[in-house]
């Protein structure tokens, strides 16, 4: 086997560590703008690695204007992609129009950070990947600007590498 054919094979097999990324949200700490008193709604449920899709097992804020959720990655990362899974039991449209921000500022509940993506639609129980093309930051947030709504998320995965 020639050297020119080894690298593509390693990349395909995922064994070349320089090209693999981890879900760095798993070691982060999540917070949110408010809590839905009718449900558990713990912000950390959105980064627990579980894809349980019903309301008792997802994160949910209370009904409020401009609800937000964020994960503190505890240090800055170069973020390549963010994967968001929507809840399956109802209300999938609540995520429509939500913005995904990445950056180092806590100003305006991180809404001052650059936008990686705007969620147009993620059907109930489905997962969508958003490419962030190497944006860097310590905080990743999802916010619904300008609307009164509940913010519900099943799971948020953040892939990237430590910013040295």
Q: How far from one another are the termini?
A: 35 Å
Q: What fraction, in percent, of the residue positions are helical?
A: under 10%
Biggest sheet overview: 7 strands, antiparallel
What's the CATH H-level homologous superfamily?
A: Galactose-binding domain-like
From the spread of the alpha carbons, the general shape counts as globular
Number of helices: 1
CATH class: Mainly Beta
User: Are there runs of 5+ residues with pLDDT below 50, and where?
Assistant: 1-19
CATH topology: Jelly Rolls
Q: What are the secondary-structure elements, in order, as H or E? A: HEEEEEEEEEEE
Strand content: 35-45%
Protein model, in words:
The chain has 164 residues and is mainly β. The protein has a single domain (21-162), classed as Sandwich (Jelly Rolls), CATH 2.60.120. Helix content is 7%, strand content 40%. The chain contains one helix and eleven strands; from the N terminus they run αβββββββββββ. Strands 1, 2, 5, 6, 7, 8 and 11 form a seven-stranded antiparallel sheet that branches. The chain has a two-stranded antiparallel sheet with strand order 3-10. The longest helix is centred in the N-terminal third of the chain and has 11 residues, at 3-13. The chain is globular and about 40 Å long.
